[in-house]
Amino acid sequence: MSKIPLTAKGAEKLRAELHRLKHEERPRIIQAIADAREHGDLKENAEYHAAREQQGFVEGRIQELESKLANAQVIDPTTVNAAPKIVFGATVVLEDTDSGEEVTYQIVGDEEADIKQGLISVSSPIARALIGREEGDEAVVHAPSGEHVYEVVEVRYE
Length: 158
Fold this sequence. Notes:
Elements: E1 4-7, H1 8-37, H2 46-70, E2 72-75, E3 91-96, E4 102-108, E5 119-121, H3 125-130, E6 138-143, E7 146-156
Parallel strand pairs: 1-2, 4-5
Antiparallel strand pairs: 3-4, 3-7, 6-7
């Protein structure tokens, strides 16, 4: 399996989720299964089947997180010395040349991308158009909604 790029913050979030699943969710589900077993016939016990299904989801997520963290290449944006160029981990302020609207994004790994928090995946059309650009450059983004042109207003590593 190839290395998965993650920011230091993203890796810490995954570790926190893994810890919560292992030390809070897993014991809670084990107890729910034990309680449901006490109710007798397991064939028609909805609580038992629901708890077992939940256990399957939690165990699957634990395995997924462990695999991702084992294959992670953690990159701390504050130590990246790529300025003024945009690379993985950069926080960029962009201005839409049509509307004049400004947006701020940080380029992160696929696992930590969340557009609502301004975190875009390094493999997204916007990030691919921005990689290698500098402040003052224009980036043409070919998105499903059409072509957008953004001017890079600011690049920072935080």
